[in-house]
């Protein structure tokens, strides 16, 4: 018999922009429980987006970046008759959001030579325009799913 699922604690919206997604993004960036540091990085990145793009609300750019970087299809490994198949599957909305956040943060961390807030702002701007490392990763995921379409009937 399975255990009861633990009730997830609801995430409160962030202080400045009143967005639950942005607060979740801050939590993803956080290292060693240093939330104020991650909050400062994200808010500095949002200010950089505001100045670089000359937009009133950088939250729209953030939301667009999250939507653009999230994959629709992915492949999951499935073992059938002694062989492993990469079976394409649709991505749930929660996983799509977490993958896009993870990929954007990973791409920003991979760049070196400038403060994290600038790298994060650049990656968010690139993702909102449909460019950048996170978008490349999404495209690769879609290509994998497309090339393994023949194994879609193994879906469970």
- CATH class descriptor: Mainly Alpha
Overall mean pLDDT stands at 93
Low-confidence residue ranges: none
Succession of helices and strands: HHHEEHHH
Structural account:
The chain is mainly alpha-helical. The chain has one domain (20-154): Ribosomal Protein S7 (Orthogonal Bundle). The protein has 6 helices and 2 strands. A two-stranded antiparallel sheet has the order 1-2. Strand 1 (73-80) and strand 2 (83-90) form a beta hairpin. Helix 1 (20-29) packs across helix 2, helix 2 packs across helix 5 and helix 4 packs across helix 6. The longest helix is centred in the N-terminal third of the chain and has 19 residues, at 35-53. The relative contact order is 0.15. The model has no long low-confidence stretch (mean pLDDT 93).
Notable features of this structure?
single chain; 156 residues; globular; two-stranded antiparallel ribbon; mainly alpha; 6 helices; Ribosomal Protein S7
Topology of this protein?
Blueprint: H1 20-29, H2 35-53, H3 58-69, E1 73-80, E2 83-90, H4 93-110, H5 116-128, H6 133-147
Antiparallel strand pairs: 1-2
Helix pairs in contact: 1-2, 2-3, 2-5, 3-4, 3-5, 4-5, 4-6
A few lines on this structure:
Helices cover 56% and strands 10% of the residues. The chain has 156 residues and is mostly helical. Helix 2 crosses helix 5 (116-128) and helix 3 crosses helix 5 (116-128).
């Amino acid at each position: 018999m399975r255990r009861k699922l633990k009730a997830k604690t609801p995430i409160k919206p962030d202080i400045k922009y009143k967005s639950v997604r942005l607060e979740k993004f801050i939590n993803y960036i956080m290292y060693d429980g240093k939330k104020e540091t991650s909050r400062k990085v994200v808010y500095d990145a949002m200010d950089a987006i505001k100045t670089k793009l000359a937009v009133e609300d950088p939250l729209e750019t953030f939301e667009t970046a999250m939507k653009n970087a999230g994959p629709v299809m992915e492949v999951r490994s499935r073992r059938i008759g002694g062989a492993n198949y990469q079976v394409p599957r649709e991505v749930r909305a929660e996983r799509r959001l977490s993958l896009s956040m993870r990929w954007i943060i990973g791409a920003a961390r991979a760049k070196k030579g400038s403060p994290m807030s600038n790298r994060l702002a650049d990656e968010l701007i690139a993702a909102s325009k449909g460019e950048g490392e996170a978008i490349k990763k999404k495209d690769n995921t879609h290509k994998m799913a497309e090339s393994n379409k023949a194994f879609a009937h193994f879906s469970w």
